[in-house]
Amino acid sequence: MKIFDSKTAELKEFVPISAGQVGIYVCGPTVQSEAHIGHLRSALSYDVMGRWLSYLGHQVTLVRNVTDIDDKVLEKAVEQKQNWWSLAYANELLFAADFRRLGIQAPSYEPRATGHIPQMLSLIATLIERGHAYKALDGGANVYFDTASWPSYGELTNQSPEDMDGQETSADKKRAQDFALWKAAKSNEPATAAWDSEYGRGRPGWHIECSAMASHYLGTNFDIHGGGLDLRFPHHENELAQSRAAGHGFANYWVHNGLVTVAGQKMSKSLGNSVYSRDLFALASAQTVRYYLSSAHYRSVLDYQPSVLAEAEAALGRILGFLGRAGRELATSGFSAADASIAIPAEFAEEMNDDFNVPAALAVVHELVRSGNSDLDEKRLSEAAEKRDQVTLMLEVLGLAPSQWESQVSSEHGALNSLVQSLIAERDSAREAKDYATADRIRDQLSAAGIELSDSQNQTHWSLS
Length: 465
Ligand SMILES: [Zn+2]
What we know:
Layout: E1 2-5, E2 10-13, E3 21-26, H1 37-55, E4 59-64, H2 71-79, H3 84-101, H4 117-129, E5 133-135, E6 143-145, E7 180-184, E8 202-204, H5 206-218, E9 221-228, H6 232-245, E10 250-257, E11 260-262, E12 265-266, H7 277-283, H8 286-294, E13 302-304, H9 308-332, H10 346-353, H11 358-377, H12 381-398, H13 402-406, H14 411-432, H15 436-448, E14 451-455, E15 460-464
The structure holds zinc ion.
């Protein structure tokens, strides 16, 4: 198994610190607002990695944090006239619901920054003791990491400190690159957003939380550290510097997932082109969204266009269509060959072992679907059965197998779905017959019941409004 380590910029053989055990720390969301497509993609990338490493027989411990206090959370709370902590929690719940909907397995643990202030303060004390952090020069409660004291600062992103972006000079720090470990409480911030410390009341800087929580749960030296490419600098650079300066081995492999663009443009509030998870779930089933987000290599840029979900739906439909067809035709022909020795094809494993190359692994799935369909055409039933079982195993690893999605759907949802689907079918035939009055009446009826329809290229989806 090879993993691309973004610190050394090379594919490295993956060797866990303890045989059979893998510790992964992933930077989770700052919960100042709801999840967008980039958050979903990031969480999904590490979900697939965790699933594959588990399939290989490792016991995977995946820790993904929640940043529930930070400048942005406090600002949003003021804007929305809410408590910062209830705003953060409400968004955390929205994220969790979206992740669950997408079939993302719950991490082994999901620590919140606010629950780990003692661990952060202890790490800050160690850094001061070792001469790598200092109290504000003006006597205030800020504490800074002393970048000049750490010669390898910049090693993660291979930059020299002088060339780094976003340097902020301040009268209470030694040099512009020094970053805050502890931030003095501000008079305009709520009292609940500050904690006592020997430096004075304040709250943690963003970077220190991940260093403290990673070592608390995974130990001072662990296997994989992941997060979005946008976090490489300054967040991960600073995490690495402070953890190493504290004497921690920290992560052996650094993994970064690529960003999502929208029609070739960076997603940004000013452009108003953000794609939220609710936008995706209104256009396609969660299973289709999962397929779509998996279909690009985790390190590449994923460019979202309105047409992509219909393409993903068609591609996933070809796979599920084969499974359905094989199930029906094998059952009617009375074929029964329960071969327990069916294994994942070696080609699929090779692609997954090559830095989690999911798009190439999906190509192996599609190849088997094509030849499985030919087997059915030619009545080669045992070959078709074997391919059906292999396709199912591969989909299970990717979190896309039909059985994994059926179990998420409650019986109430199933009953509602079957009623709505029959009305959608009625509306479709009305539209085909150009009876638009009937088609509109059906849509209005559903809408009155709180059910919204959305038409994509060749399918209609429904959601509760
Ligand atoms: Zn982090």
